Amino acid sequence: MTSTSDTAVQQLNIDGEAEAPMGHGTATLPAGLSPRLYNTDLAPTQRAGRSWTAYSIFTLWANDVHSLGNYAFAIGLFALGLGGWQVLAALGVGAVLLFALLNLSGFMGQKTGVPFPVMSRIAFGIHGAQIAALTRGGVAVAWFGIQTYLASVVLRVLVIAIFPGLRPLDDGSILGLSPLGWMAFVFLWIVQVVIVSYGMEMIRKYEAFAGPIILATMLALAVWMFAKAGFSIAWSTGKDLSGGDMWLHILGGGALWVSIYGTFVLNFCDFTRSARTKKSIVKGNFWGIPINMLLFGAISVVLAGAQFKIDGHLIESPSDVVASIPNTFLLAAASTALLVLTVAVNLMANFVAPTYALTNLFPRRLNFRRAAFVSAVIGLLILPWNLYNNPVVIVYFLGGLGALLGPLFGVIMADYWLVRRGKVSVPALYSEDADGTYHYRKGVNPKAIAALVPAAAVALAIAFIPALGALSSFSWFFGAGIAAVNFYALADRKQTFEDVDGEAIAVPSVH
């Protein structure tokens, strides 16, 4: 990588000295950079002092992989007729694909030190990047509210189990929630806002704290269910699939597993921008994805198979197992662990992305802390429990936005890895110079838009047209693949690219 200097930055078009929100305070904007594109939270991170190790990356997955939604998905594969080894095979296929995709995405953040909205400027242009950032952020902010609501349901059950006298507070409805429901939701909302207000370093610490708790809790639940079932489990439901249908479900399950993480493979650089080395990303991903996912799969099979052996019924998620614990103390401990898990998943998957998206949209007004508060307020005002109970909103609005994530990933990956071969001028990502590298046409790259639109149309068609339902499991791959091919075909591959690091305008990783 070519080292840059203050002189290199001065070669950019000078906007003049200006004041801009610089993280948790105000500082002078570096010469040559636009206050509409740069503040401390959007700036590249200095290489010295980066704090995310392999363990930090691993704990992201130790939390997120073991989310309640993922257990519901894996147990659903068991219910569809896949046996134990077939469920593990489906998760294994997805894990191998995710390991490769997340490394590609993570390396981008580690090299440049920039968050996802800024990374998107490379392919889409300094202003066109808002398309990618707001799409990702829009999906996340809605799910932030929904996941907080789902966690509040667990908290309500826990509170009533410990304090039965509060049960009357769970009656009635105020805008769709009982008084106790409001108290539980607002409490968890405040907890998450406080954690995020201290920035990415606090999120890293929380994930590191939560990871071992989650792994220990899930292993304990699996062992308890295994013993309860007489130390043997049912390896299938008796509706076993075979032949081509079996392999279609295995491959489809693996593809859906990647689709579930379509959000993360897109903005993984939000986390790896503070990673010390590429090796730490690979090592963290290796233990956190293929190894951890096999453990997750084994726990899923044991929980589902043990319950099916006991009474012929399938649980929907580990929360069903927790609800059946006869001891109030152990029930409270397990429920608390699930709350710790849900908050950890929500912070990393659904809070960081909209916070950076809003910071990118209003860099002169919002820093990370302010943007986090705005994101949280939106997540509250949309009354997420009503969204969750409305299938039309979940399927068409959130599903529609989700279908766009594959095409966005395809464009960004093709541009960075295939066309530019990893060469980026980081200072130019913050310049509004009309002749700048990423200015394109009025700040928007028309080739990226041209590659995105048809791929998005195909992804949406596969997601929503019943006749194409057989392909729905693979919609993310169709969208990403078509977008990548389109962009590669449209791009000027003979163009030479400058590789300039951002150390001259970088800020400390912890700020």
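Above is the first protein from milestone M3; the second protein from the same milestone is given next.
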Amino acid sequence: MASEQVADRAPGAAEARDGSGQEASEGYQRGLGNRQIQMIAIGGAIGTGLFLGAGTAIHKAGPSLILAYAIAGLVIFFIMRALGELLMYRPVSGSFSDYAREFLGPFWGYVTGWTYWLFWVVTGITEVTAAAKYVQFWNPHIPQWASALVFTVILYFANLISVKLFGELEFWFSMVKVTAIIGMILVGVGVITLGFSKAGDTASFSQLWSHHGFMPNGIGSTLMTLQIVMFAFLAVELVGVTAGEATDPKKTLPKAINTVPWRIAVFYVGALIIILAVVPWTEFMPGVSPFVAAFAKIGLPFGAGIVNFVVLTAALSSCNSGMYSTGRMLRDLSLNGQGPKFLAQLSPKGLPMRGTTISAALMLVGVWINYQWPGKAFDYVVSFATISGMWAWIMILACQLRYRRKADRGELPQSEFKAPGAPWTSAFALAFIGMVIVLMGIDKDSRISLYCAPIWGAIMAGSYFVLKARNPQAFARKDYSAPEPEVEKAA
């Protein structure tokens, strides 16, 4: 079947079920197993925001940052359970944009798909550039553009070989991050309880409140760190994009989502408690990794090298995820007539090669722009990542609320994985995200993110009405109860 035929599918297209009752995989290969899905879920919640950004947040809020991460982590759990309820109702690779299209309307699906695509393109640009800078820690003579080019090409081809290879890369990238955090926690516990190393004389849990209290700079300073905290959690929703390629989404996805509380408790709250017990919060400075500071205090001279290796893998993991998700988002838009038709075609291995190629090319262009003009203009583009990432969370919650109302009225089947406490927990999460956006507007360093949003919104609205006038059928309300025709791959 030609790509044009795929893109012009009937308006009533939905996900067909195979003989086992599972949702059809939209032409994709279900190559992501439980082991890989679990580590993708874990790795999605651990990024450079923890390894690097937490230093600035500690300087602002002191030990109360622990509370900020705990509360934000609870909100993230509500978001993920809302996503889980939708995924068990209909697990599709389009995920957020497909649910927005069904429950909120074609316009919202269009905006969500393109916004999430742009989020990962921008994130990929920043992360591959950051990875190149981390390489210079060991060898400053290696040109930044050269490392960025090599990393982008390697990850691009890895995403074109098979979805299993993507899963394996994410598994090992996540394993490095998890091992580093657990190692830091174990060493820190040893210092606190056994008193070894030069930090042993002062290390104590009393450090959490003995330097001007648990909330030394007041509740206002703690609230202002929430935007940093929420940024650290961006990409946790990536597990939803894997739904179309999970070997058994009805089992693996709920299991991955239910691990969110302990992941946050261990990797964020637990790690910060130990670090702040070893190093007084007053010794942290903006821009300095709390892990580097902790290793230095303990007296491990290779600590900076370890952290640099970890943040390098975190950056590469994020870029790898960007390559994966952008191709699938573009294909979802194409299948629904809201993107170029040629992007709908899959490779013989069931991979959205064309969308991935375009996204990778844009990431390379972004690296070149960053090399040529590293000033404010590029910062304005990068700042869009935060607000666009949170847009996906808003759409997940809004769609889950609409789905729950329809399911409760008997118009749709009930999900096998209901979000506990919904709709109240979902409404609370929406209110919390709204508060964070307001705080971003108050903070002059984050305000630029909000300036970008109306510009992108105007582009989306204008292009939507132009495309709708040219192809009204693609933007019509669809009947998601109708089966979808089989999708063929490229020869």
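Note on the second protein: The radius of gyration is 22 Å.
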